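Can't paste images in this forum, so I'm doing it all in text. The chain is below; anyone willing to post the predicted structure tokens underneath?
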Amino acid sequence: MLNVKTILFQGDSITDCGRSRDNFEAVGTGYPLFVKAQFGTDYPQEFVFQNRGVSGNRIVDLYARIKADILNLKPDYMSILIGVNDVWHELASHNGVAADKFEKIYGMLIEEIQEALPDIRIMILEPFCLKGPSTDDCEAIPDKWQQFRGGVEERAVRAKRIAERYNLVFVPLQEMFDKAALTAPPTYWLGDGVHPSAMGHELIKRAWMQGFEQLRGDR
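Text version of the structure:
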């Protein structure tokens, strides 16, 4: 009998990507679907995939969902992609999460997960963004590109620090997108500077899978 493992995708709209609220194995149209398609083909019936990403989430929103959307599911593996809304919401509506608080809440989230699920394996994905066709703009947050990019980079630093502190796998994504934007316009990969196209999701999937191989190797 197969020992089926559960993979949980957590995050904001980049992870959510139209996933079902009724059937959590209907993982949407983004990188979780691409991962599911490849792993489900390469390792038939070895994994169950669940997506609990929620559009618009900041780290505090994810922390508020810890019981229902993480602990109760008892996943074997989990990836987290969060951070861009912590900056975006502050610049757009003064409802973001400061970098210090972002790191503090992220640490609380990981500590509580590891305490409740000591065997879980977690990887943290780096938040990212790209400017639009203009050199000083981003469609997601017009006229505030420098503040936006700087804020996302700061959350990325904090996310990496959390991964190092709790011995988690960290998956870098910003440099990957920066390099991709040299081969095609930024909007080819991230339509509004934040939300990936199909090609952008494919890039995330490839990085995700590299991180997951490291995660499995750590067992």
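The chain has one domain: 5-217. The two ends are 21 Å apart (CA to CA).
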